[in-house]
Amino acid sequence: MNPTITFRSFxxxxxxxxxxxxPLSAAREAHGLSVEEIALLKGADRQxxxxxxxxxxxxxxxxxxxxxxxxxxxVKAAFEKEYPFIQVEFFRGNxxxxxxxxxxxxxxxxxxxxxxxxxxxxxxxNKAGIMQRFNSPYLAEYPAxxxxxxxxxxxxxxxxxxxxxxxxxxxxxEVPKTWDDLLNPKWRGQMIWSTSRGSGAPMxxxxxxxxxxxxxxxxxxxxxxxxxxxxxxxxxxxxxxxxIAGEYPIALHIFNHHALISRKAGAPVDWQPLEPVTAxxxxxxxxxxxxxxxxxxxxxxxxxxxxxxKVFQDVDYLPAHPEMPARQVDLKPGxxxxxxxxxxxxxxxxxxxxxxxxxxxxxxxx
Amino acid sequence: MTFSxxxxxxxxxxxxxxxxxxxxxxEMWALIIVxxxxxxxxxxxxxxxxxxxLFTTKLNGELDRFTWKYYLDLLGGFQLAGPLLNTLCFSxxxxxxxxxxxxxxxxxxxxxxTPLRGLGYxxxxxxxxxxxxxxxxxxxxxxxxxxxxxxxxxxxxxxTRPIVNVYxxxxxxxxxxxxxxxxxxxxxxxxxxxxxxxxEEASAASGAGIWQTLxxxxxxxxxxxxxxxxxxxxxxxxxxxxIPALIGLPGxxxxxxxxxxxxxxxxxxxxxxxxxxxxxxMLIVAGTLYFYFRVTREPARFQTITGKGYRPRLISLGRWxxxxxxxxxxxxxxLLVLPFLIILWASLLPFYxxxxxEALSRLTLxxxxxxxxxxxxxxxxxxxxxxGLGSATVVMGLxxxxxxxxxxxxxxxxxxxDLLTTLPLLFPGIVMxxxxxxxxxxxxxxxxxxLWILLIAFVTRYxxxxxxxxxxxxxxxxxxxxxxxYASGASWSNCMRRIVLPLLTPTFFGGxxxxxxxxxKELSMSVLxxxxxxxxxxxxxxxxxxxxxxxxxxxxxxxxxxILLTVAISYYLFARRYGVQxx
Lengths: 366, 583
Prior knowledge:
heterodimer; A: alpha/beta; D-Maltodextrin-Binding Protein, domain 2; 12-stranded mixed beta sheet; 13 helices; B: MetI-like fold; two-stranded antiparallel sheet
């Protein structure tokens, strides 16, 4: 081997390394702290440090899946009211789009995004290596199933997936109240569910396999498959609207708060929990190279705090904070209509989701 | 150069040579420039589609392993035959039905003396203003088990079970064909309008009746246009998603796109099946195009606009014209009025109810107030209109020149241009959106997060439509008019400006409005490419579809449809005046 070439390539490598590192360390000096250090800050002066940093940053970019006029805007407004020197901007997409966008940007070394939310978005983004562990003192008030053990995400709001039915087509005495009631031959061809991975048939299959155990669950599902359930790629909201319109008497797996909203408007619809109720939640976390880390941490603190959770409560969403009830109390477990919920964590969804989809495709699709 | 009047054929030949010599350079340059621009737009997504079909990707976006899996899965679909057979029946059925319906209406509107002809254009433009999702929902509500159509039929026939089952292959074909019939109409109307009347007159003079003339002269002259339209609708139906998903799936009719969609829900997200699917589609279409080329190799057979006065005369239908009027009215009613009424109805209710007296008492404007207060609504509308204007103009300008090269010149490389301008038709929107997103994140052109990246995406996606319009239009334009211009000493640009473009005005405007309306609806790329500062309407509609109640979605759709309709109609009126002036 030629030693000069080796030495030269070594020099080049050193220069390249320096070039790579220098801007970073320069940036670090300007900020004082790295994103990671800010994210994991503890101690009495934490709030002061965050606020001082946020004043310099002044902005926040949030990639989210929450519904714009129901939540993203009210949350933005409430947070900006709390910290008037901050401007929040957001991009809204579904779970996958949000991650795709952020991951594509990171691949091109474009670090714009600060906050990412979604049912599985933070988990997915973390598997892609673009999330930062963080520590928010407010998450201490949350139960273990509503926050990530590694500190990648915390839950902001809960979703409960229940049966929804047209009250003109299904008499009160007939409403299925247990999973076994769904096997009644009179419901053959009368039920519809969504194909959505995150909230439709695969999730319900997952809940049954997890809660009944693989063998009993599978046997049950094979019987359910004979009921000729109609499927649609439409969202749960639209499927519920088809039920309201009288196209199908029963929607198998819809968000209970949607049924409530329509019921309040006078629609002939109600929801019925089948226990354990499938439960998911929206998780929120911090992007690895967030350009506004101080602001991002203030934001995370805010949405996990009771003050931030009230915004969710006010728009009839179900706050994740254990001490914050839903405005309509019975939408949450323990509120009178159901007790047991099966929280399917985003990690389990990620690991098992493909199996559930396989089961759905092989047994329920013709 | 001089020539003697006594020797006209030679003189013409000389002038042809002269004309050719003076514009051959321009031709070549035009080909090069148009090809480079098109290649720049089309190749990155093409590369990405092929790559997607051959590699698995990691979650962080990096390519993982090389694999034939996606192709094998797709071929597995062949063995099952179910989805593939359904896809073929659905696509072919929709293409034929749409062409039949749209073609008849186009003929009645452009070539006969039927009263109320203008209704055809109005219907076509207006129906394109309705977003796909909304249109499909409208038909679901109309034809559904509990819908008014079944209610009427049940009452009439004294039955208790629903009569019409929309969740079937026929239901899918019916709605898909209706959806595309306005495109067929607009494309064929442009061709019908510019047809050489002398052949039809000769036929009539020889004692042939209307039907005989139609069958033996008009339809045959229109062959390339028909073929082009059938192929286009076939491809669109082959790739269609909304209707197979919302109408087919609940009835257990699966097609390839719905199978791919269900598959693509796996994690980590891979678009390999979608990629392999579009590569397969590319091969099918390439084969068909080859066939098409063989059919149209002698374009002179189809040239119908010659130097002899080209505006075709209207055919007098006699008493039949009232039948034609009635057909036109029925078409408008079914295509436009019915779905619009049901959407309007849904938009006025707090929750969806079948039409009834009880429902009447609940009518409300609440959904409209929700729609009008939708976040960034004004910006969204402004952006969507801007994008529509921009992409329509760029697409039509670019494809006009491209078509001229394809039809007029004998340059060697033009097949490449033809291929390039057809390819975007075959890219799945989501794959193309991702490709464009990644491309502009990497190349040092700072348009990421601006409206420009959306414009580029739209132009790329709609080039094939522009080409279909302009190609069919130019094919019918006989070379002799241009030769006459060159013979009179006109330059290439002069000839284009004063002969070709004016004669193609109807084609141009037809295509322009069409691309405008398509861009206004584009969704699959927009959802990825919009940024917090560049909201567009279609994404807002998609979000409402995902999260809002039917009534809110409908109200938003009605407002947007009315805006699009205003734009389309005012442009149509403008174009018609312009067209009149040219005469």
